[in-house]
Design goal:
homodimer; alpha/beta; Rossmann fold; Dna Ligase, domain 1; seven-stranded mixed beta sheet; 29 strands; flat; ATP binding (chains A, B); metal ion binding (chains A, B); CoA-binding protein (chains A, B); ligase (chains A, B)
């Protein structure tokens, strides 16, 4: 969809222009307050000849110009004729504030929406909304926004798209935020969220894309956009409702978005290096951080510099709580700092600079330079509350010191951010000054360090490790059926998952012969896709050691099953070597109806659920991506050899994840779920063992 | 220590009064800006006759009045003679800003400090500092503070004590904070932190005590104060440095505080219902919340009301992340809300009120009343960003609606707080108005819900369940020694821990006889306090089933041990019944040198460490406190019977915790540590089994 006339119009008509409060008045006020070149902006209102002393046309048709964009401030019932009138003037975009569409939840509203979308398609008009607050294009000075804001400079490089008008307003109100575009997309029924995303990814003036989403509609375009953003090194920051079940219900009811699971959504973001924000404040602060620092840190190590011991301790503690890495300073750094600091101070990271450095910009600059030059440091965090009511001259010396270092270092300057220790007190003059030299002020520590950990995870050179494939299902399955254990294992084996040689026997004699030809003790299990809990029905006998016992076991299993599951379809009895025990893991696939197959791995037993220690990642995945999944687990330390324990075969586990991912991707349209539970992981070099497996498929369509 | 003359002086002398910048000038400016009654405040400076047009005395002796408090703005070397001069005028308190004491880390500084403290003791003068920023007593209008602040009303009910001047300033700068006292205690070498705490707990004007601590010095007084605060229902909010190892090092180096472990400190706070803040912003916001709401919530259920779907989803999601309980609304609440809301809206908790209720104070009040009247709701959270630059009339209607409900409800009004979704944009007029009717504005969601979870945990009627005992060690132990397994078990058994009947045998024949008289298979283990890892030296043989095998086992164990540990002192061989396996837990005691014995419990195996799932609580403890410990564990769901699994004997486990706590308290001066690992917990009604135990004691002193 071409959004040029909607988002970058050369001319526009405000229909329903007015001096009153409300959409018409607010749009006019915004335009007159902000827009420099009014020459091709036309006000339209049949009841007025002027609005704010500017000529007002009785209708669109009366305007002596072509019109790219209609800004419709009039009620729902007027919209369709206005679109038709606009189309005759060459209109290719329309912003529609009116409500009375799908959001009402009524039949009438849905009918109105359908008619609107059909008409827009017919006339080839890109519709923003309906029921939206409009947008501002700061790059080209276009103001199609329906809430009045105080005048100040807001032009910058953050492109915002929000499905909530209220959240959009809050972002605009945040004093440090600077935007390329601010789009309050409302119902997003004409032009969809993914279309705006695509537009911003391709927009040269947008550096950071900042999203509030209630759900994804066009999954393919969503993924294509994330992929392109990753390739172009533009960062996408996403706040999405629906992490909790209550949040999901609200997001769904609010815009009727169909929604995959939140875990799948998060896995997708992870693959493409997009950053998830947990609330609006974090979305704002993360966008501000990324938009302000001249470049991303080159490595994930942080240095923390503070003026007091209390503040230094907070940075140490809250950093630690959030998994922040503070590398120890190098010898040279320590030597330089010792010369600058008073005798009693011990240089360390985080660093207590002591008050003695607070009142001298040159000394401050020298200390900052020493810390920045440390080879382990990727970014410098300056802990400082920009006090407002309390006279504190340190703020001046600190600012001058930072500025000096930034000027001296030029291109080689590492990114710097300021972390205040209290919010809601902030010296606005210095906030602007710091912003002006590329130093963002973050929220207080609990937000700041959480964000910085996400930044540290984000700066990996390529999250997907070159694998940009995603296996989106073409169709959604409905009814499903299970494969038997043996069938499941054969499917996996075909994709490279190591499965021990097994046999299915259909008579007691065959069981005896098989036992005699197979080595070692065997597990015998009823082989039937109809019986999921084999032990519960007497369908499993373990440690069968010879032919005659195998014969007896066969008979007993068949008797038990016939008694307990008379209707089950029986393939026979599966005879498998008893696996030696290893570290029990669970490996699975859940094929998200919206986002496709997601591979899951975690420690076995109850621990995945009890401690929520599982990693989820989209299929297909490469070996390095598999290793990243494992590293994400708390249980990874067990795999590595915990407390002098054995080191497990991480390589074989990664290969198994890759194989499972391949299988899942190849079966994206038919697979519902897959479980390998348990998967035994053996000591390094000894591989893995699939003890049991279950595949559930959709009926072919 | 009597702090009356220091904290509530009737007269005071500012020595070093001046018009310049610096301590002397800033103190004078503060006094002249803020103090109403200057009649008994005297400026002293031999070089001046007036300061800011006010009479200035050449010396303390020249003042024609008794002096309660000296405010000493002069350098370190002048201090001792001034104290002597003041003492002759009846002085009982002194604020000392000068540095040059222990904080320098030099011998000279330490000597100066020692002399100062000796002199103060000799003269019976309570010294604040040295190297402090002083204090303000808002109740009695006393300004002994050395940083200039903009004039505004700050009088309220939060008593602040901070070991960091910078953090103290940040709290004062926070626009909503209202204080009874604000004490920047500096080195806190004269009057200690615990003395100030005691003062504030006993102060009738202080409702909330807000602390920044680097460490505890007077543990007994610290605990006595926490106990008294709990009994008086005053809330203590504590920010303490040293959660991480880096933070501990910083806190220790900064004020030389001796420090128990952070886990012990946190356990103490938990026992007495004090609230721990994780950073300064949380300390401020929690203090503001507690100081502003007219009463604490009566139950831990929250209702969330918001004006947009996006904001409602954030409250649902971030609430869920933080373990907030949003009870489902009762039928009656839903009925009332359905009448108020538009047709398409679904009432729910969190509630999306939709924009339709935002512009009518009466409707708003009705919705708020309906929600507040819900029996499951203890507190109402109003999600709303107080936009500043964006014109939003909703703020007015919301405020009027809230005010109406508060007036109508009177005493029966449940507490209300506002949660904004973005920080650093706040309408100051409405912030003050809301504060004025008892409605605090919290920080954005990641802080707010974390705090509210702590509030919900805090409102339990009695955290200690009536047990206010703490077992503080009188002396700190140095060298330590281990008890053998059998000795350890006997110690525990004496305090009621169930230990199976065991015997120690000293010959092969005795082993045979014992095996024949004891029932079932036995575990035989070398019995020696010198051998901690018995299996590693061949000192353990399990499943010994009869007398002759016991004989052989005895001989083999002795041979192994003599070969592998020739120097170990051997008591014999311990013969114990083989315990049936159960759920493996770890139970232990660590006797914190500062805070006394702490009982620890967690799931066995590697999970305590890997998933940090352990509960720590001071000894002695009651059975309900023990149950609270278990409930704190993620693993509690396993004890309860996870996913249809067996329910374990939680009662017996609690009794074991109580018994271990009794043992630890009784041995507070001699116990170093205790481990029961593993403790088998059996299905409900079947008790617990101590499989192995180790006690390490200090040498008697």
């Amino acid at each position: 969809m071409d959004l040029t006339k909607l988002m970058k119009p050369r001319s526009m008509a405000v229909v329903g222009a007015s001096e009153k409060e409300g959409f018409g008045g607010d749009v006019c006020r915004n335009i007159l307050t902000y827009t420099k070149d009014l020459s091709r902006i036309y006000f339209v209102n049949p009841k007025r000849t002027t609005v704010f002393e500017r000529q007002c046309f009785p209708s669109i048709s009366d305007i002596p110009d072509e019109i790219d964009l209609l800004i419709l401030c009039t009620p729902q019932k007027t919209i369709l004729p206005l679109l038709e009138e606009g189309a005759k003037k060459g209109c290719g975009g329309a912003v529609i504030y009116a409500s009375g569409y799908g959001e009402t939840g009524t039949d009438e509203g849905r009918r109105n929406e359908k008619e609107l979308l059909e008409k827009a398609r017919e006339l080839n008009i890109a519709v923003m909304g309906p029921n939206c607050a409009g947008y501002i294009n700061y790059v080209d000075d276009i103001h199609a926004f329906a809430f009045v804001s105080e005048k100040r400079e807001r032009k910058g490089n953050v492109g915002v798209i929000s499905q909530s008008g209220q959240l959009c307003l809050s972002m605009m109100d945040s004093p440090s935020m600077r935007f390329s575009y601010n789009i309050s997309a409302g119902n997003a029924k004409g032009v969809q969220m993914e279309d705006y995303m695509e537009f911003l990814v391709n927009d040269k003036d947008t550096k950071v894309i900042s999203l509030y989403l209630e759900g994804v509609k066009n999954v393919k375009k969503f993924i294509d956009t994330l992929r392109k953003a990753a390739q172009m090194k533009k960062t996408v920051v996403v706040l999405k409702a629906g992490r909790s079940s209550k949040g999901q219900a609200i997001a769904a009811s609010h815009t009727g978005s169909m929604s995959g699971t939140d875990a799948s959504f998060e896995a997708l973001l992870k693959k493409f290096g997009a950053i998830r924000a947990d609330d609006l404040e974090e979305l704002i602060a993360m966008s501000l951080l990324l938009s302000t620092i001249p470049k991303l840190p080159q490595r994930p190590g942080f240095a923390s510099m503070n003026l007091s011991g209390g503040e230094t301790a907070i940075c140490a503690d809250v950093g630690w709580l959030n998994g922040i890495s503070y590398p120890d300073f190098a010898e040279e750094t320590l030597r330089a700092l010792k010369e600058l600091l008073p005798d009693y101070a011990t240089p360390n990271n985080p660093l207590d600079m002591t008050a003695s450095l607070s009142y001298d910009a040159d000394l401050y600059a020298q200390a900052l330079t020493a810390v920045m030059d440390d080879p382990g440091v990727g970014m410098v965090l300056i802990g400082y509350t920009l006090l407002y009511e309390i006279a504190d001259p340190a703020i001046h010396y600190m600012y001058e010191g930072i500025k000096k270092v930034i000027q001296e270092k030029g291109q080689s300057c590492k990114p710097i951010a300021v972390i205040p220790f209290a919010e809601n007190t902030r010296n606005p003059e210095y906030q602007e000054k710091l912003l002006g030299i590329g130093v963002p002020i973050l929220p207080p520590p609990l937000y700041a360090f959480r964000m910085l950990k996400k930044l540290a995870d984000h700066i990996k050179p390529d999250h997907a490790r070159g694998n940009y494939d995603i296996a989106l299902p073409e169709t959604a399955g409905k009814t499903s059926y299970a494969l038997s254990e043996h069938e499941s294992k054969l499917c996996l084996e075909a994709f490279g998952v190591p499965v021990a040689a097994e046999r299915v026997v259909t008579s007691a004699d065959e069981a005896r012969d098989a036992a005699e030809s197979m080595n070692g003790p065997l597990a015998m299990k009823i082989e039937s896709a109809d019986i999921l809990h084999k032990s519960d029905v007497g369908g499993v006998i373990l440690n069968v050691s010879d032919g005659s016992k195998a014969r007896e076991a066969y008979i007993r299993i068949m008797e038990n099953v016939k008694k307990n599951c008379p209707d089950a379809r029986i393939n026979g009895v599966l005879m498998a070597p008893m696996l030696k025990p290893g570290l029990e893991m669970i490996l699975g696939v859940n094929n998200d109806p919206q986002f496709g197959p997601m591979v899951m791995v975690g420690l076995g037993g109850v621990f995945v659920e009890l401690f929520r220690d599982a990693a989820v990642y989209p299929a297909p995945l490469g070996k390095e991506e598999a290793l990243d999944m494992l590293r994400f687990l708390k249980a990874y330390r067990m795999l590595e050899g915990y407390r002098g324990g054995v080191r497990y075969d991480i390589d074989a586990l990664c290969e198994t994840l890759v194989s499972v991912g391949k299988f899942a991707a190849a079966n994206k349209d038919t697979l519902k779920e897959l479980d390998i539970n348990p998967l035994f992981v053996y000591p390094e070099g000894e591989g893995v063992g699939v003890a049991d497996s279950l595949i559930i498929k959709y009926m072919e369509r």
